[in-house]
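Hello everyone,

My group is preparing for a crystallization screen and wants a predicted model to guide construct design. The compound we'll soak is zinc ion. Before spending weeks at the bench, it would help to have a computed complex in hand. I've included the protein sequence and the ligand's SMILES below. Output in structure-token form would be ideal because that's what our pipeline reads.
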Amino acid sequence: MTDIAATDAVAGRAGYLVGVDIGGTKIEAVLIGPDGRVVASRRVPARRGGDNVLDDVASLVRGVAGDRFADVAHVGIGTPGRVDAATGRIANVVNLDIDELDLGSLVSGRLGGIPVHVDNDVNAAAVGAARVLCGDDLSGTVAFLNFGTGLAAGVLVDGVLQHGYSGAAGEVGHVPVDPNRFDCPCGQRGCLETVCSGASVARLWPTADGRPPMPDLIAATRRGDGEARRVLAMVTHAIGDTLQIVAQSVDPRLIVIGGGMAKTGGPLLEVILDELHARESACPFLKGLDLGARLRLAPVDAPVGAIGAAWAS
Ligand SMILES: [Zn+2]
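Reply:
Good plan to model first. Here are the tokens for the complex, ready for your pipeline.
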């Protein structure tokens, strides 16, 4: 956070930041003070269409900043869809009926030219979760696994997001691991995302009245339900594959489990640890990595998407 404060001093601003998290159902914003703390937050229901999103984001930024608006040095936005972080352009935000939108520069224009950075929502959540879990010590590598509608990872090295050559770093959801499994909308077969994303677990273990599937699946397994046991084994196996792919690629000091599935809490951590320990019992190399000791659940009581959007760059 000191880096951005220094940049702000150069720009002659007092160094407040605003982070905006665009979701399929709501848009949330936080105002972060020069000391790095969240000083205000605000949210509105999301409306579909590019013009509505631009209006809502701009008015939310002004609203959350209030009389500090003139001191806002930088606005960061996290959004679903395809994001070009270098240009601020977004595309294919299906939930909000956006085909293409020059989000960064159009929001900047509506806010009097304040610099705006746009990143994808998983990367923003990765930064936010790391900030909340690690405080000021962002040294080393932190991997954030988002088990949400889709499955993707965000990787930070010394607090800096790794976007990769084409912006696709961390897209582990579309690594095909099992040719005998499900077709994936991406065109391949057996992608990790077809088994262990939040949406896939909901498909494999449908629940009544909107209850989240993962806690229900774990509870049914513990009651001795054979079908639940079969489904959970498939899901936790895919989660284990995802963890190993990410962890053995970047050897992070922390592996953060995020996305909607993380709200399952302790029981999710237990079934993941069971999976890891089963694998470790057959593999001294894996046991030596002790990945279980590096696992954390993303904070559920902080708006990590909006906080991370403010700091992502
Ligand atoms: Zn795929």
